[in-house]
Write a structure and sequence with these properties.
This protein is mainly α and 505 residues long. The protein contains 15 helices and 6 strands. The protein has 4 domains: 63 residues; 61 residues; 234 residues, no CATH class; 26 residues. The two termini are 87 Å apart. InterPro entries: MIEAP, MIEAP_C. This is Mitochondria-eating protein.
Length: 505
């Protein structure tokens, strides 16, 4: 900035302009009109050059102040001079000064307005910050109140749950005490009878009367009937109701907890979500099959042992006594390790249809899940009214909304089951807990149940263990055309020929 200003000062341009003005004043009266105009034009040209130099200096000064440097001064002082007709309006010097004064007054007024606006903006910002602080305080108070209310509600629910659990445990304890008293009473009666038989007291009148008095309570009250008068084979027995509810709860917990953990383990070895779901499904199915076979052997052994007693009871009393023995001792008679190995062997028979998750470990990667499934299946089999899983009739069956719910990735426009995810829990043909399936377009490659519908009419307890398992895939394999024709025929029987044609279109 200093160098251009120094050059302008050293050029003495304003001195030359002053000399030209004095010279023009001296010879003004002697010159003609054209000569005076020429002199005036020269002075204007010189003045224009000086103004250009000044404007260049002004631009340099403004650039040093930033993008808006000197804007207010330029607007207030130069814009009125650049107005149209200002120099040719014929205003007197006094009038020009008044115009400049009014312009400066307006500029100062504008500055005052800007300052007032800035102050009001600062006040609004301070008010906004204060309101934000107040809002934060109110929000924290609201969160504290919500947390307190939630904690109170959780405490109330926990107390209610504790009360319910205590009532349930009390009812179970009472039923077990009644069962213990009943068994002790029957044991004492049986001991008295054996003692009388060993004594060999066969007097005609007196001994017969005493014998009748001792045997009379045994004949009036059945052997296996509890004190409350409810048979252990009845579904209204408190112990059976409690065990039934516990089994259903464990079945749901295995679906929501153990199944998710097993899926996570399988995902590390096998990157096929549908196949992993099929592996879990068949693990549960085979666990129930193995549990039913083991329980059938255990029940027959207990029945034979009780039937070979010195004074065997009647058939009805024998069934009640067997169920009472199962209620007490069946939980400790289960061989979980053997059942787990049988389940894994049964699943290995399905290897052409089911992929092995690990070449080295096989299905042992979900060994913990299979153990839990075997324990649950054993508990379901030991009930007086046993719980069982519904076995699918064949692959690609039509979905039954009463037994299954669709998964989140299902195609709701499809009516055929692509693959099963979780079996349905039933009791005497009634659905206790729904299963889960995936419905998609196209035939699945995971189905292993292509048994005819008539096989489902066989009772779960009378069905042999070999029949409950799937046959070898090599023996069951049929030609693609034959299997497709069978599937279409089954679909026509369930939906009708018109619905099948619309579905195929």
């Amino acid at each position: 900035m200093t160098e251009p200003l120094r050059q302008l000062v050293n050029s003495s341009a304003f001195i030359i302009l002053q000399e030209n003005l004095e010279k023009w004043l001296t010879i003004y009266d002697q010159n003609t009109c054209d000569e005076n105009i020429a002199s005036g034009c020269e002075i204007i040209e010189l003045n224009a050059r000086l103004q250009s130099q000044l404007f260049r200096l002004l631009g340099i000064c403004a650039s040093e102040g930033g993008i808006y440097g000197g804007a207010s001064a330029i607007k207030s002082r130069l814009l009125p001079l650049l107005g149209s007709g200002f120099f040719v309006s014929g205003l007197t010097p006094s009038t020009s000064l008044s115009v400049l004064a009014s312009t400066s007054a307006k500029a100062s007024e504008l500055d005052d307005i800007k300052k007032a606006y800035s102050k009001s903006l600062e006040k609004l910002e301070s008010d906004f910050r204060a309101s934000c602080r107040e809002n934060s305080r109110l929000k924290s108070e609201l969160e504290n109140s919500k947390h307190g209310a939630t904690q109170k509600r959780v405490d109330a629910l926990r107390n209610e749950l504790d009360d319910q659990n205590s009532k349930c445990y009390q009812s179970r304890l009472q039923s077990l005490e009644e069962e213990n008293q009943r068994l002790q009473k029957k044991l004492m009666q049986k001991t008295h009878l054996e003692t009388d038989e060993r004594r060999g007291t066969t007097t005609v009148d007196k001994n017969d009367a005493n014998s009748d008095e001792k045997i009379e309570p045994y004949q009036v009250e059945p052997v296996a009937s509890p004190v409350s008068g409810i048979s252990p084979l009845s579904s209204h027995d408190p112990l059976q109701r409690s065990r039934h509810q516990l089994a259903v709860m464990r079945y749901n917990e295995l679906f929501s907890g153990g199944r998710i953990e097993a899926m996570g383990i399988l995902r590390r070895h096998l990157d096929d979500h549908d196949m992993n779901q099929c592996i879990i499904f068949h693990a549960v199915m085979e666990a129930f099959n193995v549990a039913k076979a083991h329980f059938r052997i255990y029940r027959n052994r207990v029945r034979a042992k009780l039937a070979s007693a010195t004074s065997p009871p009647s058939i009805e009393n024998l069934d009640e006594l067997v169920q009472s023995h199962i209620n007490v001792h069946a939980t400790y008679a289960v061989d979980v390790a053997s059942m787990t190995e049988e389940v894994k062997i049964a699943m290995e028979r399905l290897v052409p249809r089911l992929r092995v998750p690990s070449t080295a470990l096989g299905f042992s990667v979900i060994n913990e899940f299979i153990q839990d499934a075997c324990k649950l299946a054993w508990e379901c089999c030991t009930l007086a009214q046993p719980l069982d899983v519904y076995r699918p009739v064949y692959a690609n069956e039509v979905i039954d909304d009463a037994k299954y719910r669709r998964s989140h990735d299902s195609s709701y426009s499809a009516v055929l089951v692509h693959h099963h995810i979780w079996p349905c829990l039933v009791q005497n043909g009634s659905v206790i807990a729904k299963g889960e399936v995936c419905t998609k377009r196209g035939r699945t490659a995971y189905g292993v149940y292509d048994t005819p519908p008539e096989s489902e009419n066989v009772s779960g307890r009378s069905r042999t263990h070999a029949n409950t398992r799937s046959c070898s895939p090599v023996l069951r394999t049929a030609s693609p055309g034959t299997r497709s024709l069978r599937s279409l025929q089954r679909l026509e029987r369930q939906l009708g020929r018109t619905a099948v044609r619309q579905y195929l279109r």
